Amino acid sequence: MYPNAQEQGALQAAENLMHEIMARYDPSHDAFHVQRVRKTALLIARALSAQQPDLLVVELAALLHDVLDKKYVPETEAADPYGYFLPFFQSLSSEHGLDLISDGRARQIVKVVENVSWTTEKKLRSTGKLEEWHRICVELHCVQDADRLDAMGAFGIMRCAAYSAAVNRPLHAPPGRLDTAVQHFYDKLLHIQERLKTEPGKQMGAKRHQFMVDFLNAVENEYNAEALEVACTA
């Protein structure tokens, strides 16, 4: 039965590390975001039981996926993810008797963490560097879809506003400005549905995508309310 005592110890250690590092991140990429991704990734993985995803790999990768987010850490820190996480994996062996280094799962977890990002996948795709592993790794797909689903729908809208506030990006502006939160929906968030990998992810994504479309329609209606009111009274 997953997780056993050793695995539970490893998960708690990963959670502690995540909380320690991400306490300084803004609310768009905080521990609550990570816990939502963790929950959704496991939900997807359990729905894909026929493909036998490694639940520990999925859950640890979900917990660690934003620890080295390049928006928040220096390039030097993010340059060698395996080297960064190696002391953590060594501690799992010494303190919890769980050797993920020898069985290769430590490298797999870090590889998933390195490849979850939308930007990373976009860059690999544009340069023709996507490998067969990217196409078939079910653990990667579970965490990717979970992370992307949290950028959609109601939470996606709140996270976009939170990050915009953190970097002082306008929420909305007159036509012509491309540096707004609303423009980010058209640049990225409305395209996420096209890149979901799993069937459970696609099913959840469809509803969240429509929620964003309805939200953007409401934004435009509210922005144009003054013009509509003038037209009605003319």
UniProtKB/TrEMBL annotation:
Residues 26-161 form the HD/PDEase domain. Gene3D superfamilies: 1.10.3210.50. InterPro entries: HD/PDEase_dom (IPR003607), HD_domain (IPR006674). This is HD/PDEase domain-containing protein. Coiled coil: none annotated.
